[in-house]
Specification:
heterodimer; A: 257 residues; mainly beta; five-stranded antiparallel beta sheet; 20 strands; B: 14 residues
Chain lengths: 257, 14
Amino acid sequence: MFEARLGQATILKKILDAIKDLLNEATFDCSDSGIQLQAMDNSHVSLVSLTLRSDGFDKFRCDRNLSMGMNLGSMAKILKCANNEDNVTMKAQDNADTVTIMFESANQEKVSDYEMKLMNLDQEHLGIPETDFSCVVRMPAMEFARICRDLAQFSESVVICCTKEGVKFSASGDVGTANIKLAQTGSVDKEEEAVIIEMQEPVTLTFACRYLNAFTKATPLSTQVQLSMCADVPLVVEYAIKDLGHIRYYLAPKIED
Amino acid sequence: AQTQVRLDSFFTAL
């Protein structure tokens, strides 16, 4: 028996919004430690890794490890039926081929349930090597989203250059060149507005705007985003999900021919 | 010109 309950459906809606542009379907691996999802996009350029800890749920029970393959378009249709403040419960029997998603209004006067067919997905689990990153940048998630959106107008690619002074995002195309520099913040009143750079070595990497913009769909989940970079390895873009877990995106760099 | 690298080369199949 698997049962996981969250106080607010809005969190699940935001999580789905953060992954459904990259993935059409995905397997949710449930165990007593929580829910994990790991999947590459169709072109094998990016990977989504979602971790939701069992202790972040209002109620969590998972008697046997369970892999639930879900069509994310179908799940989005179901979540559209929930009000943001509704409680949401996901339930499945062991070895079931369906999952039930139930919404309850705060006053318990409206209860709706949706049974969704599960899919048998040919999933490959990937081992992600531990990396000693040269640069780790923490910055406001909204600012990162704004920069990715703005620079996508000028080029398909963005160059991220990180030094101890700051981080520079550049795009160059037919229109010309765009550069956005963010300096490390001195002192800030609000932690969520800070730009913090931990640098071992300066690093310059090029990435496809299209994927960065897809990652920023996670912005409503978190006030800050963390970018971890190292020469010639995938970028890691991480959004914390308060008291519940995190979503990490991995993006392979572009290299000179 | 730049080429998009695939992720497969960085990660190992488990």
